[in-house]
Amino acid sequence: MTAAVMTDRPAAYTPPAQYKLSTAGLLRSEWTKLWSLRSTWIVLLCAVVFSAGLGAIIASSVPDDQAIGGAASAIDFSMAGIALASVFIAVLGILTVTGEYSTGSIRSTMSAAPKRLSVLWAKAAVYGAVVAVLFGAMVFLTFFLTQAIFSGTGLGGVSLSDDGVLRALLGYTAMIVYLALLALGIGAILRNSAGSIGFYIGVIMILPQLATLLPWNWVTDVTPYAPGNVPNTLLMVDPAGATLSVGESWLWMGIWLVVTYGLAGVLLKRRDV
Amino acid sequence: MIEIEHLTKRYGKKTAVDDLTFAVKPGVVTGFLGPNGAGKSTTMRAVVGLDTPTSGLARVNGKHYSEFRSPLTEVGALLEAKSVHAGRSAYKHLLALARTHGIPKRRVTEVIDLVGLHEVAGKRVGGFSLGMGQRLGIAVALLGDPAVLILDEPVNGLDPDGVKWIRLLLKGLAAEGRTVFLSSHLMSELAQTAEHLVVIGQGRLLADTTVDAFVSGNGQARVRVVSPDAARLAEHLAGPGISVSSPERSVLEVTGTEAAVVGQTAAAHGLVLHELRTDRGSLEDAFMQLTADAVEYRQTTEGANR
Ligand SMILES: Nc1ncnc2c1ncn2[C@@H]1O[C@H](COP(=O)(O)OP(=O)(O)OP(=O)(O)O)[C@@H](O)[C@H]1O
Ligand SMILES: [Mg+2]
User: Fold this and answer.
1) Which helix (H) or strand (E) holds B181?
2) Which domain holds residue B263?
3) Other CB atoms within 10 Å distance of the CB of residue B238
């Protein structure tokens, strides 16, 4: 603590040069984070069990007199569980972001990647990919499972090569990935678990349905464009009667994601962590 | 090297940091001192880019933190609040951070061993004690083997063994030429670790000096004399700038002069001395004296005594 020590300062320290922040690194990091939480395993397991299980239960309990209508009805019945599983997927998407804020781990995350935006993209990419792979498989598994149950009834004998069937099944996969990404973006905007889940269930899922009960015609005209409704056309074996065409459906999914992630990105840059 | 230039940070109406300017140099441990709410944590968060300054800037080695291509090897930070997901294990938390920079697993195990968390590395962090959480935070800070370390109250929650360990660790890291910047409320704690001091109060700079200069500058040295001839000695010592008081019979406390002068005066007049020593004002006194006007949350003892 003397002047002698002060002048005796050691040569400047050079940190290791081989480590660099990278996009690949951020993706691997988000992958590690996702799978190192027990909640991920539990929620995904629930989603998988629900989608296949509920599909199977519904399929086996359809009364024979309703077992008519061919491919469209067959897919509606068998995918009922997938639609419900999307709530689990959305909640987990929200938690991948809000969980970081509620526990404070976001501070570690953002000090490792201070440009911040790349973290949001990495989170969305990893979660979106996991959901796409998992539900890409689940949708087809559930389809074949329920077809086995339906065999011999009016709902059986539907083939992937039938008109619109493959597109509808891929539509279910696209919908669930879209909702997962939408929910994750909402989490990034609101930062709060309860608030984001409440917003998702209340505003994205329920509000457009309730709104159709209102006595004004214009409400029914706009509800198909609500963020939670835009994928609906993709789920149809025969989308001819839908307000949005298949192309418009994709377009609006894109618009809502751009709006959500645009807002999330701007807020992420501007707000303190 | 950390440079803070005219840093101001407001949260709504509350000014947490007010036009703060100082630099933290490499090679020595620099302490960051200030009463509760002084703005220490806010300043540290601004350095690692978590809080955006209202005005002014914080730079590390000449760059804004977000410009670094490998932030973890440039700056290692331990921030005030727990920055870990309670449901994740210590190992996975470190691994996730390491992966962003391509830091190998080997380094993760290395820092876990270094901070003594080997036994519990696989356990969920939610069950960690304050001290274990703090050790994990230190492991995070060391992960990238960084050139600059920013530690917000690192000894908080550590046992005496841990306190001693981190003191040596930080001195060692500084001796390697790194910049080490740590905050504390405890002057006595910092005096044992730090060589340089930055003191703030209510967001403003109060002192930027070496520990030695701080102590001698703020706590006034006092010479204590015990002599059977105290009264006569007091008469001989009296002079301009010198004040003599006698808290007990045959004890004198002299300020404004040195022990050597007192001894010589006594010898010159043939007075017997039983004791002669210099009392440095305590570090805590010096700190409190300096921040007396800048304490934000002042407690009273009245309620407690009722
Ligand atoms: N995110 C925030 N929002 C609003 N006010 C804040 C925020 N962070 C800090 N403050 C306020 O800014 C002031 C400085 O806080 P800071 O945490 O930097 O002090 P500190 O020196 O670290 O205190 P301590 O010694 O208690 O840790 C305090 O008055 C605090 O209430
Ligand atoms: Mg603090």
Assistant:
1) strand B179-184
2) 221-279
3) 11
What is the CA B140 to chain-centroid distance, rounded? Answer: 20
Is residue B306 included in any domain, yes or no? no
CATH of the domain at B137: 3.40.50.300
Provide the chain A residues 66-125 that lie in CB contact (below 8 A) with chain B.
99-100, 103-115
Structural tokens at position B181 = 């910047």
Predicted pLDDT of residue B282: 65
**A70 confidence band (pLDDT: 50, 70, 90):** confident
Q: How far is the CA of B185 from the centre of ligand 2 (A)?
A: 9
Q: Give distance in angstroms: CA of B34 to centre of ligand 1.
A: 12
Of A9, A16, A108, the CB nearest to B83: A108
Do B140 and B262 lie in one domain? The reply is no
Task: Show residues of chain B in contact with A107, CB under 8 Å.
Answer: 50, 79, 81, 83
Q: Tell me: do B30 and B128 sit in the same domain.
A: yes
**B115: DSSP letter:** T
Helix (H) or strand (E) holding B76: strand B75-78
Percent of chain B with pLDDT over 70: 92
Reported as a single tens digit per residue, the pLDDT across A211-251 is: 878 888 888 888 889 999 999 999 988 888 888 899 999 99
Residues B33 and B170 occupy one common structural domain: yes
By the 8 A CB rule, do B254 and B222 touch?
A: yes
Minimal Cα–Cα distance from B83 to chain A, Å?
4
| pLDDT higher than 80, residue B145 | yes
In a domain, B288, yes or no: no
Could you tell me if residue A15 is inside a domain? no
Quote the ipTM score: 0.90
